[in-house]
Amino acid sequence: MLPRKSIIPEEFAFSPALVSPIPRKPVFRDRVNKARFIAKSGACNLSHKNIREQGRFLQDVVTTLVDLKWRFTLVIFSMTFLCSWLLFAMFWWLVAFAHGDLDPNRKPGVEQCVTNVNSFTSAFLFSIEVQVTIGFGGRMITEQCPTAITVLILQNIIGLIINAVMLGCIFMKTAQSHRRAETLIFSRQAVIAVRNNRLCFMIRVGDLRKSMIINAVVCLQVVRKTTTPEGEVIPIHQIDVQTESAVAGNSIFLLAPLIICHVIDKDSPLYDLSEMELQCSDLEVIVILEGVVETTGISTQARTSYVTEEIQWGHRFVPIVTEEEGVYSVDYSKFGNTVKVATPHCSARELDEKPSILIQTLQKSELSHQNSLRKRNSMRRNNSMRKSNSMRRNNSALAVPKVQFLTPEGGPNLAVT
């Protein structure tokens, strides 16, 4: 016989608040720790293996250089210029050697192709001067060798191409769109609560910069492992999720932090999940924020995801925007703070089939709130009564006591001092 823990989790065994009012047969299974598809930082947790056609990456050299890490990009940048200088230094040395400029016994009246090029070192220095257009003036080309003129033109053209490609790659790498996405933030937790009498999945997004994101669009996707009726297993099944502003194309005005709301209706993949079943599922909600940077005009994209452990059922985000002296102020220290609210523990389908569940939940919440207020008021009254009684006892202790004196005849004589 299986132990009880493998059938129903202990934290749900005797919790009457989590039992759905509608009889239903929930399915429980052990939660498997699976890898995230999208990390919290927005990086894709995907590994490419067994790629046989590696030459495809060389067909797009610019993108390959931009995608490389900085250390590899700088090494390639330096080696490209160094190799080109050495290559043309060899050409200049061959031109000087063919013309006889390197011969120490040459006639003094014969002019050199390149003045002061007498060794490979001097040819290398002249190659650098030609390609980077330094022109120190110690070495210069003459009219004696048409071959030298051809090499000069060829090196200038190739040097311009190398400068354009490498500097363009460096610029593209420094101005990548994900750099702007570092200041686009998401709440660490997602919440599910009742809004406008409907269960809603909500997250909070914000922009730390004053420069805005133009035409900002938020897209939600649910990624889960599914099996088709034909038995095909889809390990990463992506399901689009509509947000509350779907009519306007999900375009938002990201001036201040906003709460993105997804109404859990019959078209939602979360429609049949109750609180207990959500914790046992292995789905992942991916959030993608896209827009155009106002200052540069470059498109940017910020991503994050929420697994079931990061979805709080029955919570709501606290307000963080206040008006102070005619200016709206945003308190980012409370960006991810939530507060617990009254929320049915059943699924959205059960809530649609029996709306009285929501009414009963709200009534119970109101009664518990009133009881807590009564208890708080009674505790305050008891504390005030205790304080008043203690003050009275202290005052009575400070009062002057009566002293009794005995006369010589033995009769009592009372005197108060």
Features:
disordered N terminus; 16 strands; Helix Hairpins; 417 residues; Immunoglobulin-like; alpha+beta; 3 domains; five-stranded antiparallel beta sheet; five-stranded mixed beta sheet
Written description of the protein model:
This protein has helices at 61-67, 70-99, 120-132, 146-174, 177-180, 275-280, 348-353, 356-398, and strands at 184-186, 190-195, 198-207, 213-227, 233-241, 251-252, 258-263, 284-293, 299-307, 311-313, 315-317, 321-324, 327-330, 338-340, 403-406, 412-415. The chain is an alpha+beta fold. The strands form five sheets. Strands 1, 2, 3, 7 and 10 form a five-stranded mixed sheet that branches. α2 crosses α3 (120-132), α2 runs antiparallel to α4 (146-174) and α3 crosses α4. The N and C termini lie far apart (86 Å). It holds the Pfam family IRK_C. GO terms for molecular function: ATP-activated inward rectifier potassium channel activity. This is ATP-sensitive inward rectifier potassium channel 8-like. Residues 366-404 are annotated as: Disordered.
Q: Name the CATH homologous superfamily of the largest domain.
A: G protein-activated inward rectifier potassium channel 1
Tally of individual helices = 8
- Residue share in β-strands: 15-25%
For the largest beta-sheet, the strand count, sense and barrel status come to: 5 strands, mixed
Q: What is the C-level CATH assignment of the largest domain?
A: Mainly Beta
Domain count: the total is: 3
Average pLDDT level: 79
What is the molecular shape? elongated
Q: What is the strand tally?
A: 16
CATH architecture identity of the largest domain:
Sandwich
Q: What letter string, H or E per element, gives the SSE order?
A: HHHHHEEEEEEEHEEEEEEEHHEE
CA(first)-CA(last) distance: 86 Å
- Give the CATH topology of the largest domain: Immunoglobulin-like
Q: What is the helix content?
A: 25-40%
Structural class assignment: alpha+beta
Q: In angstroms, what is the radius of gyration?
A: 40 Å
Uncertain residue segments: 1-31
